[in-house]
Amino acid sequence: MKVNEVIGILEEIAPLSYSEDFDNTGLLVGDADAEVSGILVTLDTLESVVQEAIDANCNLIVSFHPIVFSGLKKITGRSYVERVVQKAIKNDIAIFAIHTALDNAWNGVNAMICEKIGIEKRAILIPQQGTIQKLVTYVPKQEAESLREALFAAGAGNIGNYSNCSFNSDGKGSFNPNDEANPTKGKKGVTHFEDETKIEVTFQKHLKNKVLKALFTAHSYEEVAYEITTLNNTNQHIGMGMVGTLKNPMPEKEFLKHLKKVMQCECIRHSALTGKTIEKVAVLGGSGSFAIEAARAAGADAYVTSDLKYHDFFKAEGSLLLTDVGHYESEQFTKELIINALSKKITNFAPALPASRLVLSQINTNPITYL
């Protein structure tokens, strides 16, 4: 099994096309065509983690956070980032980062936090814009059914809880093949009119290449007429953070104790108590101050995130319990999420890469310690 095959599986879990613009996801170091001896899954890639991969005979590290955020102009070993890259290259170890692609995934980081806290009836807190596209194409009427089925099989036509969604209208298309054409309908030099069906389907943008491949494969025309537009519709399953209801609503102090226990926190920084019973909760793993207003707009009683600054806590304004559980603490379960998802998806390659070659890093990479 090669590195690029593992990347393909990771893209099924969390397509990189949904990464935030500021992020640096994907293969950061290494050869995509290299054979994989083992995969080490970690939250952060430090020198000690690279050594752990070497000791475990793993030549691919799948990391949540990218070790390289911005361009490196020199690699001289002066910083921990440069030393990690040097060590990985010297030992032929590839590094792949999934970060905000997994943050934005429906079954990603925030779903895991919801599961730990006990949040049900989940919805995306801040849906990502521009993730839904629409294909419009025209096909001979007698081929419409087979083309629709091909597009559906490629993932087009899924809207929320519904599949095989399309709009179809019949009309008459015209074309005149020139001397260089190889028409499947009509004759060269003669304007031909064909009874056609106009098919319209939506799809998530990461499926674009797959949908177009299905279109060109299933369509009989030499030149396929089509157009793709990006829609402003809200995507119910892609975006930052989640909001839902507690399985067991509880008073604020009880909620804070529950949160400290399930998130395994040394401490929780929080805003003033509001006197509310905590029922509706918003969560966002990692730095989440930018989503405070979104949590309030969603009607949340509490917002669970990290990296809140002094003035951020004033934004609670007595109506929302803001909780900062710590950056590492909010994302600590992510490596288990990745390895469990990989284990399920990788079974088709079991002869080449047994499950035993999926290794969960045992190194605590939290840079913060508490007295």
Question: Mind sketching the topology for me?
Answer:
Blueprint lengths: L2 H11 L12 E4 L9 E4 L4 H9 L4 E4 L16 H11 L3 E4 L1 H5 L5 H9 L1 E9 L4 E9 L3 H10 L13 E9 L16 E13 L3 H11 L7 E6 L7 E13 H11 L6 E2 L6 E11 L4 H6 L4 E5 L14 E4 L2 H5 L2 H12 L12 E3 L11
Parallel strand pairs: 2-3, 2-15, 3-4, 12-13, 13-14
Antiparallel strand pairs: 1-4, 5-10, 6-8, 6-9, 7-8, 10-12, 11-14
Helix pairs in contact: 6-7
Structural summary, described in words:
With 371 residues, the chain is an alpha/beta fold. It has three domains: 3-98 and 333-360, Udp-n-acetylmuramoylalanyl-d-glutamate--2,6- Diaminopimelate Ligase, Chain: A, domain 1, CATH 3.40.1390; 109-128 and 239-331, NIF3 (NGG1p interacting factor 3)-like (Udp-n-acetylmuramoylalanyl-d-glutamate--2,6- Diaminopimelate Ligase, Chain: A, domain 1); 132-231, 2-Layer Sandwich (Alpha-Beta Plaits). Helix content is 27%, strand content 27%. The chain has helices spanning 3-13, 47-55, 80-90, 99-103, 109-117, 144-153, 208-218, 252-262, 292-297, 327-331, 334-345; strands spanning 26-29, 39-42, 60-63, 94-97, 119-127, 132-140, 167-175, 192-204, 226-231, 239-251, 269-270, 277-287, 302-306, 321-324, 358-360. Strands 5-10-12-13-14-11 form a six-stranded mixed sheet. Strand 2 (39-42), helix 2 (47-55) and strand 3 form a beta-alpha-beta unit. The protein is globular.
